[in-house]
Amino acid sequence: MSLSPGGTGVAREDAFIHPALFYRGDEEYLAGTVPFIRAGLDAGEPVTVAVPAVRMAQLGDALGAAADRVSWIDMAKAGRNPGRIIPGVLRHFADRHAGGRVRIIGEPIWPGRSATEYPACAQHEALINLAFAGREATILCPYDEARLDPVALADARATHPVVIDRSGTHPSADYAPHRVIGDYNLPLPEPAEAAGAVAMSFDIDALPLVREFACRWGAKFGLGAGAVGDLELAVNELAANSCLHGGGTGTARLWVEDEHVVCEVSDAGTISDPLAGRRPADMSPNGGRGILMVNHLADLVRVHTGPAGTTIRVYMRTVSPGLS
What we know:
The protein has 10 helices and 13 strands. The chain has helices at about 25-40, 55-65, 75-80, 85-95, 120-130, 150-160, 175-185, 205-220, 225-245, 290-295; strands at about 15, 20-25, 45-50, 70-75, 100-105, 135-145, 160-165, 170, 200-205, 250-255, 260-265, 300-305, 310-315. Strands 1, 2, 3, 4, 5, 6, 7 and 8 form an 8-stranded mixed β-sheet that branches. A 5-stranded antiparallel β-sheet has the order 9-10-11-13-12, with helices on one face. The longest helix is centred in the C-terminal third of the chain and has 21 residues, at about 225-245.
C-alpha cells in the first residue's frame, strides 16, 4: 500500500479532509495509519487516535516514544453509541484546539459491531461531513476490507469523499453522504413478542409518571441502579421534547433485547436538523440539547423521523460490555 507522506493525498488548502483507509491485515493497517500520525506530529498538528483498544496497543508500539505526543481514546468505549462520537470525541478534541488544523484517526466501524448498531454507525460517518464542513481537520477512518461486510465497504465509499486503497489515493466516485443518512432513516423493527414490551401514553402533566414507569420497568428488566438513573434522565429529556416539540403527547415503550433494556419514545413531531443531538451544547437549537444528553447517557440511540412522526430508541446494557 502506497500512501503520501500526509496520508491523504489531498490538497492542504481544503479545509476538511475525510478519507477512508481500506486495509487488509495488521501490516496494511500500520502502513496507512503510522505515517499519517507522524506527518501530523511533524507538522505540529494536535493528533488524537480513537480506535478499539487492540489497535491502540499496536499503534503505540509502532510509534515508540512519539506515542506520548498523541491523545488516545478507546473507541469501543467512548464510541459504543455512534451518536456520541461527533460531540463527545471528534468535536470535543477539535474544539479544544480551535485555530489550527487537527488530525484524527477515528475507527467507529469494526468487525463485531452488531446489525442493530450498524445503521447508526453509517449515519455517523455521513454526518461527520456536515459537522466538520469548513473546519480545519483531517479525519482518517480505517476500514477492515477483509473482515467487514460488503455493505459497510460500499457505505464507506459513499460517506468519504476520498478513498485510500492498494491503488493509491483517489476521490470516491460514490460519495453521497445525504443518501446514506436517508437510506438508514427507516422505520425501526417491532420488538419480538417474547421481549415483553410494556407501554404508556403521556402528556406534559404525566412526565413524573413516565419517569416512574421507565425506572420501574428498567429495574424489573435488569438494569442496575446507575443505569436506571441514566434511563430516568434520558426518558425525561425525550418525553419533554415530545411535549414541547412533538405535538404535546407521546408514547413510551420498554422491552428487553439482546442484553439491553430498550426504551422507545414516539411522538408526532419531525426532526428537521440531521445534526440534532450531535452539536455541542452551546450550539444546539431547541430540542437538540435533550438528544445530546441522551447520546451521552445511552449505549446506543436509534432514530427514525419523518412526516408521520419521530421514534427514538435508547439502549441500555444490562451486563457489562466486553473489551474490544
